[in-house]
Every structure is written in structure tokens, then in C-alpha cells.
Amino acid sequence: MAPTQPAAPEPDSLAEAIAKIAGGFDRLQKSGLNRKAIVILLNDWTGVGKRDIERVLSGLADLPKVYCRPQR
């Protein structure tokens, strides 16, 4: 028997998830570690290239601006 796929998220919950991800990244940046330290730690832990990590971190900050409607 094939595993069932989870239901697609509702648009509101997807927007909330994007906001939480961006908020978590914002808290990480304010944690006392500078961006270079975050990149080095992630590179060491995952083996992912530093350039790729930089791109992902830049994208995380912009997620709500790109994919969520402005709050009214």
C-alpha cells in the first residue's frame, strides 16, 4: 500500500508558516551571532557550501515580501 500524501496546506496556514520561518530567521540574526558565524556553523554542520547557505539566508529574509500579502 502506497503512503498517503498529506493534504495541501491552506493559503492562510501557508502564509503563517512563511511568517514564522522569517521570524525565526530574524531571531537567529539577533541572537548575538553575526551572519558570517551563522554561515560557518551551518556549513560545518551540514556540509552545504557557504555560497549556497548565503543564498538561502538571503531568501529567508525576503519570503514574506515575495509570497505574502501585506498586513492591513
Structure characterization notes:
With 72 residues, the chain is mostly helical. The chain has one domain (11-67). It is built from three helices and no strands. The longest helix is centred in the first third of the chain and has 19 residues, at 11-29. The termini are far apart. The model has no long low-confidence stretch (mean pLDDT 85).
Nutshell version of this structure?
With 72 residues, the chain is mostly helical. 68% of the residues lie in helices and 0% in strands.
Outline the secondary-structure elements.
Elements: H1 11-29, H2 35-46, H3 50-67
Helix pairs in contact: 1-3
- The end-to-end distance, rounded to whole angstroms, is 46 Å
* Main structural class: mainly alpha
Percentage of residues in helical conformation: 55-70%
E-strand count = 0
Strand content: under 5%
Number of helices: 3
The tally of structural domains comes to 1
Q: What kind of sheet is the major sheet?
A: none
Which of globular, elongated, flat, extended, rod-shaped describes the shape? Answer: flat
Global mean pLDDT: 85
Q: Rg from C-alpha positions?
A: 15 Å
Order of helices and strands: HHH
Residue stretches low in confidence (pLDDT < 50, at least 5 long) are none
Name a few traits of the molecule.
mainly alpha; single chain; 3 helices; 68% helix
